[in-house]
Amino acid sequence: MAVISGLDTLSNPLATLTQLANSSSSLDGVPADLEASVRYAAAKLTQVAGVLLRLPQDTIAKAIVIFTRFWAGPEGGSLAIHSAKDISAASLYLAAKLSFLPTSPRSVLNVYTFLLSREASPLDFINPQPVSDKPNPETYYLSEGGYQAERLTLTKAESTILRTLAFNTHVALPHTISLTYLQTLGASSSALAKRVFEHLNGALFSPQLLYLTHQPNTLAVAAIYLAAREVGVKLVDDEWWEVFDVDREELGFLVVAMRSMESFARVEKEKWERRTVPLTVDQVQRQLEVRKQSEEGE
After folding, report:
1. How many CB atoms lie within 10 A of CB 1?
2. CB–CB of 202/261 below 8 Å?
3. Does 22-171 match 175-264 in CATH topology?
């Protein structure tokens, strides 16, 4: 990934056109729509796990960006080789380790064992059946032997992420930048700021990989532009986004992409209704076999 020079702390490594057009998963025969579904579900898994671990939102957001970067390009990770759930756990563990609030491997693995339980998980893309009021603890209990094995897997996944990203784990987020821009525009209402943050958080799950293709300042400007229209806050009449180094074409693309997140999430929910999204290598392979059999039967 190429890094834009200058103010490095406020910029991110961006994916190249080659990386966007050719992922390692696609080269291994994983269809683009399946890859997008797995990435989306695993990113949601990362978010929920971070909440249960009581990690700050910025740490969770950085974990999701690291997770997304891992799969980019032909040199990135492949769903045919690496389990999305393992990379999700390792990304969260790594992001927390790099923050002021690191968490232990045991805490991470206990939370993921619970969330990946087919009977107790509150996530519908893992447990399509309604969760009972008192799920059996045995379904999400991590034994000492299981913990040691999972800890080894977590450590290996963390090393794989670091090696794949060339140890570049820097992530600049647009949230703080957006608040500065709102103050500059004289439009720092709580309702507007809340809606801006909602769009920025939603963009973390974008199938267009917005955090890999655009710098934080452009994401902040697009979120402000869209949120202001939705909340009904009037900004300055001039083309204010140009002051923040964003052109109209880029702004338009990001606004459309952010606006489409709600429909994308709804389509994904309908697509996988009463089915489990494959988050392991074995599950992905079985899904590919099912698709192949279905195509041959037509």
Report:
1. 17
2. yes
3. yes
Place of tokens 């009449």: 237
pTM: 0.94
7 pLDDT more than 70 = no
Residue 14 is given by DSSP the state E
- Give domain limits for the chain: 22-171, 175-264
Q: What amino acid occupies position 118?
A: R
Summarised one tens digit per residue, pLDDT across range 187-232 is: 878 999 999 999 999 999 999 999 999 999 999 999 999 999 999 9
| Residue 270 structure tokens | 């309908």
Least confident of 22-31, 49-58, 153-162, 288-297: 288-297
- Phi/psi at 213 (5° precision): -115, -15
Tell me how far the alpha carbon of residue 115 is from its chain's centroid.
16
Classify 80 as helix, strand or coil. Answer: coil
Of 82, 104, 89, 94, the residue nearest 167 (C-alpha): 94
SS3 category, 13:
strand
**Contact (Cβ atoms closer than 8 angstroms) between residue 108 and residue 128:** no
Spatial contact of 127 and 64, defined as CB atoms under 8 Å apart: no
| Distance from C-alpha of 291 to C-alpha of 31, rounded to nearest angstrom | 10
Fold for the domain defined by 175-264:
Cyclin A; domain 1 (1.10.472)
Q: CB of 258 within 8 A of CB of 204? A: no
Q: Which residue has the tokens 């392991």?
A: 280
Both tokens of 54, joined, read 């009581």
Q: Which helix (H) or strand (E) holds 3?
A: strand 2-3
Tell me which amino acid residue 237 is. Answer: D
Instruction: Tell me whether residue 194 is exposed, middle or buried, using C-beta atoms within 10 angstroms of its C-beta: 0 to 12, 13 to 18, 19 or more.
Output: exposed
102-145 pLDDT, tens digit each: 999 999 999 999 999 988 888 988 988 766 667 778 878 999 99
Fold (CATH) for 22-171 = Cyclin A; domain 1 (1.10.472)
